[in-house]
Amino acid sequence: QLQLVESGGGLVQPGGSLRLSCAGSGETFDYYAIGWFRQAPGKEREGVSYINSYDSSTYYADFVKGRFTISRDNAKNTVYLQMNSLKPEDTAVYYCAASIVDGRHSPNEYDYWGRGTQVSVSS
Question: I need a surface site. Which of 8, 30, 42, 79 has the fewest CB within 10 A?
Answer without folding.
Answer: 42
